[in-house]
Each structure stands twice: as C-alpha cells, then as structure tokens.
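Lab channel / #folding
Pinned by the channel admin:
"Please post every new chain as: sequence first, then the structure tokens as a reply. Keep commentary short and put observations after the output so the thread stays searchable."

First post following the new format, from NK:
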Amino acid sequence: MIQKRLLAVLFLAMFSLASPSISFAANANIPDLLSDEDSAGGEHWSNAPPWDEDTGSGDDWGDAPSWDEETTIDEAMGSIADPLEPMNRVFYTVNDKMYVWVLSPVSKGYAKVVPIGLRTGINTFFENLYSPVRMVNALLQGDVDKSGIILGRFVINTTAGVLGLADVADQEFGLKKQRADFGQTLGVWGIGNGFYLYWPLIGPSSARDTVGFGVDGFSRPTFWLIDDWLVSGELVTADNLNFLSLNPHFYDEFRKMAFDPYIATRQAYFDYRNALIRKGKAGDND
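Reply from TO:
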C-alpha cells in the first residue's frame, strides 16, 4: 500500500514543475515588473547622451547617474552566473520533455473534467493557505504595510471567502495578492543570487533561492499540520497540477518565441527575481 502511494506521489510530483517557466512567471506579468527605473543601479539612464565616437571618451556622459555601489556584479552584467550550464541544460531538457509528453496532456485532461470555477477556487484556497509564510517574509523584509495587507487578505478570505475558496479581499476590498518569499527576503538583506541552478521537477532557481525554497517549504502549514508526509506531498502536487491547468499556454508560447528557450528561461528568471527584490527593498506593494 505504501509503495503504491509512494509511486503515486512520485508521479504527481512531476507536476511540481508546473512547466519550466510557469512556476515563476505565470503569477506575475514580468514586463510590468521591469522598467527603466529597475535597471542596474535603479537609476534612469534615458537622459544620458549617446557615446561620442569621435572622442572615444565618456566625457559626453556627464548627465548619466553615478554608479550605484549597491549594484551587484550580476545586475551590472544583466545576467546570472551559470557555471553548471551543461548539467542545468540536461535537467532543462528532461523537464521540457516531461512537460510536453506528460504534464501538458494530463493537465488539459484535468481541465476538461474539473470546471474552471472549481479550479479557480482550489487555487485561491492554496494561495490563502500559504499566506502566513508570505506575511512572515514581508515582516522579515521590514515591510509592515505589505504584511498587514497579507494578514487582512487572510482573515477576510478565510472567513467571508469560505476558507479561501473565494478571493473576497480582492473583489470587495481591493486588497491585491502580495508576493513575499524567503529567497526574496535574503535578496532584500543583501545576499546575491549566487549561481544559476535548474532543478529537476522544480525548474529555474539560484543558490540563494534554493535555500529560500527549502525554508518556505518547511514553513508551509501543510508540512506541520499533516503528520503523513505522503498526504502532504499529495496536497502540494495537487495544487501544482491545478495551477498548471489554469496556465496551460504560457510555456508553449514561450518556447515558440525564444531562439534558445534555456537562455530565455534563465534570463527571465534573473530579471523577475531581481525586480521582486528591488520592489521589496523599496517597500512597494504589488
């Protein structure tokens, strides 16, 4: 019996991938997170004059802002270090094939069986369930306003929203979902990305965010409230399967547009995470 359940969990765990890109991008509109102000150093360079080809010097750049000492090397280069690229590419290929051959067909079948209204309610329920973890991270980032919004959403959706099945906080009170995780918290504290990692099943990450992912995972209520780790794992994978069914086309379009999907995924992840951290440092709410 245990062996059968373990195999079931391992199969369902494949849905933890939720596609190599969807897991970090479908919850947010990346272009909206990025702007000129979010460029390296956080300054606006639009007033800087063009390079003087005659002099070959930077004298004409007098109006350009000075270098921000808090800017990391990764941000300055506009990319994340990837010393393990051969290994990461292998894992990316495995996840990519798994998505095309298994995850996409199964999630589409699930979407046909389960009505969109119910799937949306399930997604909202899990989002609400994980609110305490986001609230703690917002506090650790020193963002009292964001933690207050998360707490307010949790109370309203748990009560008026029937245990979080409906997002009443957003619909009736205009309290938008807030993003806060421990990887972002470490970034706000000044810890850099480290190097890029692409994990089987989980997808894109970094050395810093891998630590954050583990801390957040162990902090989830399902980990502490359910003694049976198999049941806990089943809940997490069910959440991810449901999430993937609500975002079925993002990765397909991403693959079509990108010349090299691996590099595009890496860059999108880097830009997305840095944008979240800059917003966290600035205390901006979503």
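NK: The longest helix spans residues 85-113.
TO: also worth noting, The chain has a mean pLDDT of 77.
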